[in-house]
């Protein structure tokens, strides 16, 4: 099949395929998105597509990759169009999304991206760059010693980092008399808007104190909570979608029916009417974010590491393992009491919905994909809950088994797991620790030091102790025995 999905082929797609019914030529850009990967295309870009379909013509997306050209190379020949495949059980519905008007690759032409961000029509810059791209040190502050931060300070006109692009574009808008855009973080960081605001102010202070005041006083950083499972696209997915479309799509996106977006409503320069299409606009996103991070993301990471150690390739296969399924219930029982009270949350209904989502065999969400970057994810997904539990005199055994499983899975790479099965920003330091053949307690202490887990907390020693006990069982008896050891532990 040689013909590609494109504006020309759009009208010939089967009637079973949903497609943009608006005139894309009449759409103007209003959003620049940094990190135009599969999640953005399954989530924010789909919501924007809904808004464009309702007649809001000023919110087209300029998508930018900060590292790889893969997305641009796949979608440019398709005029930015791609297929969103929503899968559940044996059912799959296809939708072609048209909200991405153009794609840029920052390393190839940083000036083009700065121009797009400085364009007065751009009123929102959104980000899905993953936790590690925020370049935080162990204390959670900006890592001012990172080579890319140093490079951006030395050469502001050719940034490498999200911080560099955001600040330089804001500087150029200020110089031109253009109001600042709103910065909307869509990554899984606690208080993600406030976190990015703090990091960007710290970055600005390294350039100029006046710039730091400008960012602090004049730029809006609403927080948001995003939720949709998006597994990696396979060649089989591409072949199946192409057969249904009748044309080839180089990079369709697979996802589930569930989709959630909760956003703090602080957009001085305006925004699309997202609430018309299911987005929850709120004054404070924190309760929703905490529930998602601790119940969905925390269990997802746990399923990934225990699944890898148990030989399960996908989330659905791991969740079908009775030992892992029972463990997840115990994890949720420990995490739920740490959630905000009186915020209108319904964690029991939420976890019931999560169980159905995890059991969706149509998604084939690989455990190895979820396992990436554990050192950046576990602090907010697992360790924060565990600290609250221990401080309250309650059990954190299920929570800390997740941390021990991450250590054990990282240690197993190159042995029972492939050497590069998943990656972590701290891999070099982890490898050095594992090479020393330390005891479980020594390993746990060294890893906590390296990753900054529970740094400064009076309860760090207790968390390390629990982790070490689990790690010893994982090393000697395996994942099933480690989970079985939790039988009878009171939540």
From TrEMBL:
Gene3D superfamilies: N-(1-d-carboxylethyl)-l-norvaline Dehydrogenase, domain 2 (1.10.1040.10), NAD(P)-binding Rossmann-like Domain (3.40.50.720). This is Mannitol dehydrogenase domain protein. Residues 284-428 form the Mannitol dehydrogenase C-terminal domain. The keyword NAD applies. Residues 30-275 form the Mannitol dehydrogenase N-terminal domain. One of its GO terms (molecular function) is oxidoreductase activity, acting on the CH-OH group of donors, NAD or NADP as acceptor. Keywords: NAD, Oxidoreductase. The keyword Disulfide bond does not apply. GO terms for biological process: mannitol metabolic process. It comes from the Bacteria.
